[in-house]
Design goal:
The chain has helices at 13-21, 24-66, 71-79. The chain is mostly helical and 81 residues long. It is rod-shaped, with a radius of gyration of 25 Å.
Length: 81
């Protein structure tokens, strides 16, 4: 279900006037575009954080392998009680 909620944002006076003078169809199109922009904006930091985490994990993995860590040694370490 895609429920909608009303929010209030501050915009320059001329933008607010143009929005109020727009047709209902134009306002709906603007709302859809603004929602898409906001969704993209809020998802981007999460995607960037995931990319940084993956990069860090790759670097740690490469360094561990360079220092001689093998899958067998890692399994032994993880299974050691």
């Amino acid at each position: 279900m895609n429920t909608k909620e009303e929010i209030t944002i501050k915009v320059p006076a001329n933008v607010a006037l143009a929005y109020r003078n727009a047709t209902e169809t134009e306002r709906e199109q603007i709302q859809l575009k603004l929602a898409a922009i906001m969704q993209l904006q809020f998802k981007t930091p999460r995607k960037e954080a995931i990319a940084r985490l993956r990069n860090t994990m790759d670097e740690v993995s490469n360094e561990a392998q360079a220092r001689g860590l093998t899958p067998e040694i890692l399994a032994f370490i993880l299974n050691d009680e």
